[in-house]
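Internal QA ticket QA-208
Title: Verify multi-chain structure generation after dependency bump
Assignee: T.L.

Test input:
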Amino acid sequence: MVNINDVARRLGVSRSTVSYALSGKRPISDATKARVHAAIREMDFWPSAAGRALATSSTRIIALLAPMAANATPEVALQFVHGVVQACRASGYDVLMVTGEESFHSVQRLVRAKQVDGFIVLDVEESDPRTQALRDAGAVATLVGMPAEAGDLDCVDIDWAAAGSLLVEELARLGHQSICLVGAPKEAHELGMTYATRFRSGARDSAKTCGVQWVEVAAVNDFFEGVRGVETALEEHPDVTAFVVQHEAAVAPLFAALSNVGAQVPRDYSVVGISIDKLGLNFAPSVSGVRNPSREMTRAAVAMLMDRLETPGREARSLLLAPEYVDHGTAAAPKVAGTPK
Amino acid sequence: MVNINDVARRLGVSRSTVSYALSGKRPISDATKARVHAAIREMDFWPSAAGRALATSSTRIIALLAPMAANATPEVALQFVHGVVQACRASGYDVLMVTGEESFHSVQRLVRAKQVDGFIVLDVEESDPRTQALRDAGAVATLVGMPAEAGDLDCVDIDWAAAGSLLVEELARLGHQSICLVGAPKEAHELGMTYATRFRSGARDSAKTCGVQWVEVAAVNDFFEGVRGVETALEEHPDVTAFVVQHEAAVAPLFAALSNVGAQVPRDYSVVGISIDKLGLNFAPSVSGVRNPSREMTRAAVAMLMDRLETPGREARSLLLAPEYVDHGTAAAPKVAGTPK
DNA sequence: ATGAAAGCGCTAACAC
DNA sequence: GTGTTAGCGCTTTCAT
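Actual output:
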C-alpha cells in the first residue's frame, strides 16, 4: 500500500513537503501543492491512521459510551448514536462504540492505550460511576444527561422540568381540569435517572400552579400490564380528561386502553408527551407535545467536546435545551363537564 | 504517560522481553514474566494502540456499517449493534461505528487509512453497493443479510423463508383456515430488502401447501394508518382468524385495531410473528412466534470475521439460522365456525 | 519555500 | 531465555 515516501519520491520532493501540502501547516508554493494533490489522487494515497496517531498522539476517534441498559428507550438511544456519529464525522472524527458493562471499564483502557481523543457519555445517571472513571483517567468528555455533580465535566441535556411544565400548562390552557401522568417506569427513578424525576417535578409543580387535579401512573415495561394500568386509573379517576406521557413508546398501550373503553383521541381524551424524531421503520403513534431534540443534543455534545479538545483548560459548561411544543393533533379542549364518555 | 521503555528500564530488561512477556509469542522464564506483570500493574502501563498498530499493521478495530435507513427497525438495529460490540470485545476488538450515508463512502477511507481490520455490514440489501466497495477495497467483511450475489464475502442471516413457513404451519396446525399476513412495508420490498420478500414467500408457500385462505396487508409506517389497514382487512375478509406479523413493532396497531372491533387475543384472533429480545425499556407487546436470533447472528457474524482474519485465504461461507418457535400465549385454536365475533 | 532527520511506541527478526 | 536493532508511516523541529 502506497505511503508518504512513495508520493514524495515520485515527485522528487521531501516527505515533509507532502505532509505540509496536506495539512497546510506551513506555506507550500501553489505549484508543488497542486503536484502533490495530483499525485495523491493518482496514486490513491491515504495517510495511515496509525502513523499519524503515533506522531500526533491524536487518533481522531471519539468513544461513545452507550450502556443500553434497562432504562433506555431503543428509539431514542438509536437517535443519539446516529446523531453522535454524524456530528463526529462532520468534524473529521470517527466513533468507537462502547456498550453495556464495558461502558464503565473501557474508560481507563481507552484513555491509557490512547485509543480515543475524547468521550461522549449517554444515559448519565444521578450518581454515575463513569464520571469518576473519566476524571480519574483525565479524559476529555461531554455527558449527555445531568449527574448530581458534573464538576469539571461538560454536560448537555433537555430541560426536562421545563418540558413537564410546558405540557401540563398546555393542557390546562385547553381547559383540562384533571390530568394523568403516565410517567417513567419506577425503575427509572430508582436507578437515579434524573430525567424522569425532573420531568415529573416540573409537571407536578405546574399542575399545582394551574390548580388542576393530578394523577400519576408509572409506565411498565410490558404492553398488557401497561394497558391494565391505564384502565385501572380511568376507573379510579373518572374525571381525568388528559394524559401526559413521558415515554412516547408508552403511548401505544395508552391508546389501546382508551380504545378498550371506547374512547377516542382527542375527542374523549387529550394525550401529550415527548415525541421522538422517527428513524427507520416506526409503527408507533406520534403525539402532540415536546419533541425530543436528539439532533440538537448530539450536535451540542460533540461541539462541546471538540471545543474542549481545542481548548483543554477551559471551564466546564452545562447546557439545558429548552423544550418547544409541536402539534400532532392529539390534544384538544375537553368535552364540557357532564358529557360522560 | 508510561511506555514500554519505562517498564523495561525499571526492571533492567529489554523492551522485547516486556513485549514478549505480554504477548507470549516467545518463551520467557516464569520469574521475569512475573516481574514484568507486576511492574506493568504497578506502573499502570498500557501498550499504546497507535504504536502497536503501526508495528503490527493491525488496529484490532472492526468497523460496523449500520446505515440506519428508513428500512430498519430501531429495536432490532440496536440489538445488532449491541451484539456486535459485545462479540467483538469478547475477541479483544473494538468497534468503530459508521452510520448513514457514510456507511458506503467510509469503506475505502477506513481500509486505505488502515483504520480497521475488518467490517461487519448490517441491513444488506439485494444488490448492495457496499458489497462492491468492500471487494474493491480488498476488505475483510461479514455481511448480515443476504445479497443476491455474496461472491467471496461471508454472510449470516435468518432463514426468513423457513420462519414464514413455520408460522403459517403453526397456525394451520391449530386449525386456522384463513390467515392474514401483516407484512413488511411495501418500501422494504421496493428497496430490495430480501428478508421481507423471503419471509413472504415462505409464508405464502406454506399457506398454499396447508390449503388455508391467504390475505396480505402491508404494514405502514404510521400507527393510525396501520390500525385502519387492519380494520379494512377485517371487513373485507371476515373469515380471517389469525395474523402473521413480520415486524413485531406492527403488533401494537394490530392489537389496537382488534380492540376497536371488540376482539381479544387469542380468544378471537391468534397473532404470531417475529418477536424481538427486548433491550432497554420496551412497552411493546410480545407475540408468540419466531424469536429474532440477533444474539446468535451477531456472534456468528463476528466469529466468521475473526476466522477470516486468521485465515485470509479461506473460501466464503454463508450461514442461515433456523427459526425456532417460542410461545407467548397469543396463538390458540380458532373458535369453531359459525361463532361470529 | 523546501529538505533532513529525529522522534512517536511498539513488534519481531536476528543475534547470542 | 534474553538483548539488540531495524523498521512500521507519519509529523514537526531545525536547518537552509
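Spot checks passed. The first strand of chain A starts at residue 61 and ends at 66.
Status: verified.
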